[in-house]
């Protein structure tokens, strides 16, 4: 297993673990932090393992961070239409 896949698995475990506990800001600060860390890890996965593995990890990350993805989708729809 490459370093980037190990970091991606660690990222997924940390995001799942943190999402189990409530917070006053509904985890938005944590989501921003995890997105900032996740993008370079995803780029590393893409470079070391190829686009299909990176796409699978992107979908897995989007599944965990569903609210930021949902609001980004709404923002994109407003910009296009």
Describe it for me?
This protein is mainly α. The protein has one domain. It has helices at 3-19, 28-49, 51-64, 66-80. The mean pLDDT is 90. Keywords: Membrane, Transmembrane, Transmembrane helix.
Properties at a glance:
single chain; 81 residues; mainly alpha; DUF2484
Quaternary state reads single chain
Determine Rg (CA atoms, Å).
14 Å
What class would the helix/strand composition place it in?
mainly alpha
Kindly state the number of beta strands: 0
- Alpha carbon gap, first and last residue: 43 Å
Proportion of residues in β-strands: under 5%
Residue-averaged pLDDT, rounded? 90
Blueprint (SSEs and pairs):
Blueprint: H1 3-19, H2 28-49, H3 51-64, H4 66-80
In short, what is this structure?
This protein has 81 residues and is mainly alpha-helical. Helix content is 84%, strand content 0%. The longest helix is centred in the middle third of the chain and has 22 residues, at 28-49.
